[in-house]
Design a protein that fits this description.
12 helices; Rossmann fold; seven-stranded parallel sheet; UDP-galactose 4-epimerase, domain 1; binds nicotinamide-adenine-dinucleotide; three-stranded mixed sheet; alpha/beta; 2 domains; binds thymidine-5'-diphosphate
Length: 345
C-alpha cells in the first residue's frame, strides 16, 4: 500500500482520515477524490494542501472515466471509499442522491478496482445497516443486514455489492461498520455539531421524540485508527465493527453537551420524531479489539472533546450555518411540531 485514493476525503471522516494517514505514514501518498457536495469543505484539508504527498481531484464516484483516469494518473493501489450521502433526515426528504452515490457509485469504484487490478478496496460502512437493535443485544459482523431508512438501505446495498465482488471476482475487499462519529469538521446537520452550534447561537436544540433513543457516539480519531488497522491487518472479505462498544441515550448526550458548555437545559426542545427512527444501535467490537485496537475515548469524553473543538473553531462552522444549511434547516425544522420545551413539566 503506497498510493491511496480517499473518495469523499473532503467530508468529515474522510478529512480526519487523511490527516491521520499523512501524520502516521511518511511514505504514503493520498489522493482525495471528491465531488464537493454541500457536505464537503476544502477548509477541512487546508493544513495538508501544501504537502507534496497529497493531491486533490474534483470528481464524482458515479463517473467511471474520471475514476479510472485518476487511478491511472496517480498509480493508485488502494481505494478507501468514504464518499456518500450520509444524513438520514436528508435521505427521508430525498432518497435519490443516496441511491446514486451510495449504491451506484460504490459499484463504479468496485468495477474500477477489479478492472485495474488494485491491491485493495475498503468500504466505509455504518452500524445503521443492522437496523434497530433491541435492548440487551449488540450486533456482530455476521448478523444479517436489516436497514430501515433509505440511507441505511443504500449503505447496506453497497456492503452486499462489495461482498459480492469478493466472492465472485476475488477482489481483495474489507468493510468497516462505524458507529456515530463525532469530532472536528462534521457538518452541523448531524446532531452533536448541530446542538453545540445552536447552543452557542442561543437557539433551541430540537430533540426528536422522547430523546430516549440510544447511540454509540465515538471520537472520529478512534474510528480512523480502526480503519487504519483493518487496512493493514484485516482479513480479506471480512467486516469489522468500529465503536466504543457502549451507547447512551440522546438526552444524556444533550446533558453532557450542555454541561460542557455551561448552557441552560431550557434550550432543549422536544419536537416531532423522525419517521422510522431507529431507537437503538449497539455494536459488539470484539473482532476489531482482537486485532489490537482499543478506543481512546468513551462516549462522554468524545462528546466533551467535540464540544471544545466547536467552541474553539467558530471560523469553521459560522460560514457553513449561513449558506445552504439555512435553507435545509428551514425545510427540516421550520414547520416541525414542538412537543415540549425544557426538561420539566
Ligand atoms: P460527509 O457527508 O461529511 O462527507 C461525504 C463526502 O463525500 C463529502 O465530501 C462529499 O462531497 C463526498 N461525496 C458525496 N457524493 C459524492 C460523489 N458522488 N462522488 C464523490 N464524492 C462524493 O460524510 P461523513 O460523515 O464523513 O461519512 C463518511 C462515510 O462514513 C460515509 O460513507 C458514511 O456512510 C460513513 N459513516 C459515517 C458515520 C458518521 O457518523 N458520520 C458513521 C459511520 C459511517
Ligand atoms: P444523527 O446525527 O442524524 O445520526 P443518525 O441518525 O445517523 O444516528 O442523529 C443522531 C441521533 O440524534 C438520532 O437518534 C436522531 C437524533 N437527532 C435529534 O434528536 N435531533 C436532531 O435534530 C437530529 C439531527 C438528530
Amino acid at each position: 500500500m503506497k498510493n491511496i485514493l480517499v473518495t469523499g476525503g473532503a467530508g468529515f471522516i474522510g478529512a480526519n482520515f487523511v490527516h491521520h494517514m499523512l501524520n502516521k505514514y511518511p511514505d504514503y501518498h493520498i489522493v482525495v477524490y471528491d465531488k464537493l457536495t454541500y457536505a464537503a469543505n476544502l477548509n477541512n484539508l487546508a493544513d495538508v494542501s501544501d504537502d507534496p504527498r497529497y493531491a486533490f481531484v474534483r470528481g464524482d464516484i458515479c463517473d467511471p472515466e474520471r475514476v479510472e483516469e485518476t487511478i491511472k494518473k496517480y498509480d493508485i493501489d488502494t481505494i478507501v471509499n468514504f464518499a456518500a450521502e450520509s444524513h438520514v433526515d436528508r435521505s427521508i426528504m430525498n432518497p435519490d442522491a443516496f441511491i446514486k452515490t451510495d449504491v451506484y457509485g460504490t459499484y463504479v469504484l468496485l468495477e474500477a478496482a477489479r478492472k485495474l487490478g488494485l491491491e485493495r478496496y475498503h468500504q466505509i460502512s455504518t452500524d445503521e445497516v443492522y437496523g434497530h437493535i433491541p435492548a440487551g443485544y449488540s450486533s456482530v459482523e455476521t448478523d444479517p443486514v436489516a436497514p430501515r431508512s433509505p440511507y441505511a438501505a443504500s449503505k447496506a446495498s453497497a456492503d452486499l455489492l462489495v461482498h459480492s465482488y469478493f466472492i465472485t471476482y476475488n477482489l481483495p475487499v474489507t468493510i468497516t461498520r462505524g458507529a456515530n462519529n463525532i469530532g472536528p469538521y462534521q457538518y452541523p446537520e448531524k446532531v452533536v455539531p448541530l446542538f453545540v452550534t445552536n447552543a452557542l447561537e442561543g437557539k433551541p436544540l430540537p430533540v426528536y421524540g422522547d430523546g430516549r433513543q440510544m447511540r454509540d457516539y465515538q471520537w472520529v480519531g478512534d474510528h480512523c485508527e480502526g480503519i487504519d488497522l483493518v487496512l493493514h491487518q484485516g482479513e480479506m472479505g471480512e467486516v469489522y465493527n468500529v465503536g466504543t462498544g457502549q451507547e447512551i441515550e440522546n438526552l444524556r448526550m444533550v446533558e453532557i453537551l450542555l454541561d460542557e458548555l455551561g448552557a441552560s437545559r431550557d434550550l432543549i426542545q422536544f419536537v416531532e420524531d423522525r419517521p422510522g427512527h431507529d431507537r437503538r444501535y449497539s455494536l459488539n467490537v470484539d473482532k476489531l479489539k482482537s486485532l489490537g485496537w482499543q478506543p481512546q475515548h468513551d462516549c462522554e469524553a468524545a462528546i466533551r472533546r467535540t464540544v471544545r473543538w466547536y467552541v474553539e473553531n467558530e471560523w469553521w462552522w459560522r460560514p457553513i450555518k449561513e449558506g445552504e444549511f439555512r435553507e435545509y434547516y428551514e425545510k427540516q425544522y421550520g414547520s416541525r411540531k414542538v412537543l415540549k420545551t425544557g426538561l420539566d413539566g
